[in-house]
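STRUCTURE:
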């Protein structure tokens, strides 16, 4: 456990971005952006984002958008970017934890086992598994099901389920939880979590319980820890590095969460920058109790470019 003295000294070393060109832009070739709390909040684009992204592209910076939200596939997120006016973001730059789950199953040749996946989650996971031809059950199809809990009632499960993938599910219910625990406890299915985010931005008005609550339910009834494929797991940065041959020392992870985004950067040899436009306040960042510290922090990514000086009065 980090002592308060150590945590305090760590927090004191965090630098608020003041000279972005020297401190950041000259040192970074690739920016990896979280989405919720960085690019948008809920379904509302954060002011100034299109202009900032355009400036980064004009400066020759490569960008990726990596979200722990599994409710959409990469194609689904492309539609969201387009709907918010960010039409110049191609699908190839977008990576969701639903994609990460599918990528993990593909890398481990899950399809060759002949097994199925049971999904707690939404359409994003289903669409990504469809793309790699991995069979699955559950997900939205089980949203209105109720188990028989009468005398002698039992829930029969498919013995061919070899993995349970738990992603954010706004229609999670007792049927899904019971089905998942039986697959894991009685049939040794692998327990995979897209992410462990405690809260999320469903709207821009308040924080909402995140996938950590769904994963926690399955951890509680199985006594098992999941394999996590989203941030801060290295799976997505390993994928990007292998695909694009990037130098990690020239990559900066930009996010609004300490325990996922910043940790993803610090644990995987990247630079890290926390923005205060999402769930983390400056007070929390600089608190003596906080032991996770980025290299830099800023109010928003718009601070990457200094504001033009005000014109002098005639």
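SEQUENCE:
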């Amino acid at each position: 456990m980090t002592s308060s003295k150590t945590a305090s000294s760590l927090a004191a070393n965090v630098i608020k971005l003041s000279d972005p060109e020297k401190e950041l832009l000259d040192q970074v070739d690739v920016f990896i952006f979280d989405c919720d709390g960085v690019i948008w909040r809920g379904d509302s684009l954060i002011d100034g984002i299109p202009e900032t992204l355009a400036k980064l592209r004009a400066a020759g910076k490569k960008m990726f958008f990596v979200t722990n939200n599994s409710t959409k596939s990469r194609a689904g997120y492309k539609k969201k970017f387009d709907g918010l006016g960010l039409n110049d973001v191609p699908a190839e730059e977008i990576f969701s934890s639903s994609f990460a789950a599918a990528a993990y199953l593909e890398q481990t040749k899950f399809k060759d086992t002949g097994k199925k996946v049971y999904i707690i989650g939404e359409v994003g996971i289903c669409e990504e598994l469809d793309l790699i031809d991995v069979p699955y059950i559950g997900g939205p199809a089980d949203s209105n099901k109720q188990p028989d809990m009468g005398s002698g009632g039992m829930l029969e499960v498919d013995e061919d389920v070899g993995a349970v993938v738990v992603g954010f599910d706004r229609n999670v219910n007792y049927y899904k939880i019971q089905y998942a625990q039986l697959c894991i406890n009685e049939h040794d299915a692998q327990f995979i979590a897209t992410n462990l985010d405690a809260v999320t931005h469903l709207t821009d008005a308040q924080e909402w319980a995140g996938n950590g609550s769904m994963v926690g339910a399955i951890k509680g009834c199985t006594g098992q820890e999941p394999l996590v494929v989203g941030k801060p797991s290295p799976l997505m940065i390993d994928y990007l590095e292998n695909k694009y041959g990037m130098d990690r020392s020239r990559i900066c992870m930009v996010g609004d969460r300490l325990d996922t985004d910043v940790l993803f950067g610090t644990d995987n040899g990247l630079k890290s920058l926390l923005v205060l436009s999402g769930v983390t306040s400056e007070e929390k960042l600089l608190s003596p109790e906080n032991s996770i510290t980025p290299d830099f922090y800023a109010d928003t990514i718009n601070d990457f470019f200094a504001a033009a000086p005000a014109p002098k009065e005639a």
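REMARK: The radius of gyration is 21 Å.
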